Amino acid sequence: MAESCVAIINGTIFTGETFVDGKALLIKGSRVEGLLPPDKIPPEADIVDAMGNYVAPGFIDLQIYGGGGRLFSAETSEVSITDIANALVKSGTTSFMITMATNTMAVVNRALETLSEYRHPALLGLHLEGPYLNALRKGAHPEAYIREPDQSEIAGLLKKADGCLRMMTIAPEKFDKATVDLLIDHGVLLSAGHSNASYREAMTGFGQGIRAVTHLFNAMSPLHHRDPGLPGATFQSDSAMASIIADGIHVDYQVLSISKKLLGSRLFLITDAVAAVNEGTYIHVFKGDRYTLPDGTLSGSALTMMQAVANCVRHGGIPMDEALRMASLYPATFIGADDLGRIANGTVADLVIFDNHYTVRQVFLKGRHQ
């Protein structure tokens, strides 16, 4: 069977580096073939008109719990994750790590069993946020399920995961180097979060291989002028990246702007989005622009990645090209995916087409028009 051939015309193409006008974007199969003049489009190509809108790399969300009205931790089934994935793709997120917050080990094990055998073209794997956190910075995580790191228990989780566990948020002050090494040796990307780490403890963690910080400023030791904490260590690190929730609620937009100026390409966007549920470990109550626990504790966002990009531009003073990189190129860099987050010869044809109002108009997933 011949590979499909698609040409996207009449769009402003953002390659991950720059905006390009007057060119067609050619897709063959699941990959970008390149940019070319419209009069060089192969005759066999199916034409897609971008209608003057922007064409950009699909968004990459490394921390999202649900979508399409479903929360994965509340229903750890293939049906649930499929509904979540399909809803995310429609919103422009073409790669994501389904995330599970601190929960019972029975629920974690069920999630690992489901994901170890499940495949979806947008799913990158599981981001396990907890349970090895610091209860002093638990946020919405139930303290009853927060655990001390146990190397044998973690080894068991890794075996059960069979490679689907791609990322873990941990409190670095709770981990010794041997346990950090165990996770890294199994290909798990480590991020510091829900942590009361001092500046020194955080820098030690970065030196041991923790490569990022989870939802900067939220649920962590604060930046204080006499104790810089985890945020201060992040700013002073030469390499640590950080995710941030750009909804104006989890962090003020001025803090977003300051963080961007300090971190540059080390800052990337996540949604931290959940779904409304009224039973299970997490009861998420929709409050119009956010989710909370029944007691009012902030428990997740109502963001999409498209909205996060728009907020960066409209409220954070961040240029559109850089906001788009924060939603695609920089998370791709963090996970080591050279063929994601850019539009160039040979990259994966994950694309989002959006208008001047930051409304998603069309999406391509692995070269297929959604």
From TrEMBL:
It comes from Parapedobacter luteus. The active site is at 272 (proton donor/acceptor). Its cofactor is a divalent metal cation. Belongs to the metallo-dependent hydrolases superfamily. NagA family. Substrate binds at residues 140, 218-219, 226, 250, 298-300. InterPro entries: Amidohydro-rel, GlcNAc_6-P_deAcase, Metal-dep_hydrolase_composite, Metal_Hydrolase. Zn(2+) binds at residues 129, 194, 215. This is N-acetylglucosamine-6-phosphate deacetylase. GO terms for biological process: N-acetylglucosamine catabolic process.
